[in-house]
Amino acid sequence: MSVGKVPFIHVGNQVVSELGPIVQFTKAKGHSLSDGLDDVQRAEMKAYMELVNNMLLTAELYIQWCDEATAAQITRPRYSSPYPWPLNHILAYQKQWEVRRKMSAIGWAGKSLEQVYEDVSQCCQALSQRLGTQQYFFNKQPTELDALVFGHLFTILTTQLTSDELSDKIKSYSNLLSFCRRIEHNYFQEHERPGLDPLSIRPSLM
Amino acid sequence: MAAPMDLSCWGGDWGLPSVHPESLIVLAYAKFSGAKLTAQPVDRTWRMLTETVPTLHCQGSTVTEPAQILNFLRKQRYNADYELSARQGADTMAYMALLEEKLRPALLHAFWVDAENYANVTKPWFSSRCPFPLNFFVPGRQASTALSLILLTKGESPLNSIAEVEAKIYKEAKECLNLLSYRLGSSLFFFGNTAASLDAFVFGYIAPLLKANLPSSQLQQHLKQLTNLCHFCDTILKTYFDVNAPGCLPVFSPSSPPSPGSLSIRQDAVDANLQKLTQLVNKESNLIEKMDDNLRSSPQHRPRGPPSKPSSLPSEKNSTPA
Questions:
Q1: A:38-57 residues touching chain B, CB 8 A cutoff
Q2: Are B90 and A129 in contact (CB under 8 A)?
């Protein structure tokens, strides 16, 4: 999308986009998942959410746009598919330029693919340690952190890339894998119609 | 016998061993873990152009970036996180990400992008530490790097202006400081009674904010209200750094002669104070000139007598009718 960001919700005549503002909006309407947490736990939750944004999101962007093989075979064709020629090429290369500029500003441009996989692995290890044997990250109820982690991990596990190394890294942490399965089973499968595969409910990567 | 390690870093001022957050992080961690680092300030050398700061040199290998340097020190058996559990290690990673995402942009803005702070504190400090002709472009280059980092990571598109993201980054930074304060509570350090790498990172980021004399900083005001964080900084300074003289670098290696070095550092501190005083006087006289111009050009307050000197301006302003 060239205007605004996904995901967004449309309520009456208001449009709210991106996870942070949507969470604030629902909280203002009286629905909050993290009300039961004390200040220290809320601090921890915010910190882990930043970890996911900092490591997983950046790694996803890197792999999609800065790894030439993936960008050429998968990302650019997919990103440019809704547009006619020559808009498809222009938009795809513009997006790639934007992402690469951002990567070099934060110091990721010099990283190799192996280093990025290693960072993802460390991030998953931290998440796995934090989750431990619990059902969700905080007590028995899911919070915003669970939603964020599920979104990223599920996407990585179900998206086809040039190599399976990234999803294999996640699969090596069994508690994270069962966490994803549990959420998918509890919250998504009752709405699933027969014949529909999990790929159809994955969040947009763009 | 451990191999000698040299750290290139920016020099110190305002009661801190270094004014540069990343350098301060490494210096603090070295103190916590007992690593013997020789701090080699890049002030007044051309190395500030050729090296990224901070850089660790050890036995021919070079490591940059605070996180990489800390990893390297851990591999050399200088591990301040030895007593942390795996869960605490995971928490460390999470809080470091929080600092990087939420606090760092606002810190960069407060020191390098905010016009008043940059003109009065940051640029004079760095220009005075750069050899000619680097003082003309090194601070400016750092300022534009800071600006582009903020815009690229926090702006909606690279073409955004800084004013639109300012409110957002300061709000997030204040929230981050609040979260750190909640997490610290009333303990001495973030994980019990021993300082670990997270303490080094938090100290490195908030100490310059706390100690610098920033003329306009809502973030500094906010930080000063969080007394446990201020106490945390002061505890680390008192316990780990010998801060007897302002601008004094900690004495790490017994081989470096203390007296000539600290004498020239004290002289630098005096020079810096003199410079600040000169700036204040210049600012005052600029203000007075401006007031004088305004009064002359304003129609209601046209002077009745011959034009008076600027030094008697306050009395003339008081005597004119409201």
A1: 39-40, 42-44, 46-48, 50-51, 53-55
A2: yes
Residues B39, B7: contact at Cβ < 8 Å? Answer: yes
pLDDT band for B258, please (50, 70, 90 cuts): very low
3-state secondary structure at position A36: coil
Prediction ipTM score: 0.82
Q: What value does the mean pLDDT of chain A take?
A: 83
The β-bridge relationship of strands A14-17 and A8-11 is antiparallel
Distance from CA of B236 to the nearest CA of A (A): 22
Q: What are A65-72's contacts with CB under 8 Å, separation 24+?
A: A65/A95, A65/A96, A65/A99, A65/A100, A65/A103, A66/A99, A66/A100, A66/A103, A66/A108, A66/A109, A67/A113, A67/A162, A69/A162, A70/A161, A70/A162, A71/A96
In which region does residue A29 sit, left (phi positive, over 0), alpha (psi from -120 to 50) or beta (all else)? Answer: alpha
Give the closest-approach CA distance of B250 to chain A in angstroms.
30
Q: What residues of chain A, 63 to 92, have a C-beta less than 8 Å from chain B?
A: none
**pLDDT tens-digit map of B185-211:** 899 899 988 899 999 999 999 999 999
CB-based contact B101 A106, cutoff 8 Å: no
Q: Which residues pair with B63 in a beta bridge?
A: B56
Distances in whole angstroms, Cα of residue B92 to Cα of each of A130, B72, B89: 11, 17, 5
Determine the topology of domain B5-288 in CATH: Glutathione S-transferase Yfyf (Class Pi); Chain A, domain 2 (1.20.1050)
pLDDT tens-digit series, residues A154-192: 888 888 888 888 888 888 999 999 999 988 898 887 655
Q: Alpha-carbon distance B240 to B250, whole Å?
A: 9
> Domain coordinates of chain B in residue numbers?
5-288
SS3 B237: helix
pLDDT tens profile B286-320: 777 777 777 777 666 555 545 444 444 444 444 44
> Strand, coil or helix: what is A206?
coil
Higher pLDDT, B312 or A135: A135
Over its C-alpha atoms, chain B yields an Rg (Å, rounded) of 23
Q: What is the pTM of this model?
A: 0.76
Residue B121 has pLDDT above 80, yes or no: yes
CA distance B209 to chain A (A): 21
B55, B62 Cβ separation under 8 angstroms: yes
Structure tokens at A8: 């967004």
User: Could you give the CA distance from residue B187 to residue B224 in angstroms, rounded to a whole number?
Assistant: 18
The answer, for B157 touching chain A at a CB cutoff of 8 Å, is: yes
**A2 pLDDT more than 50:** no
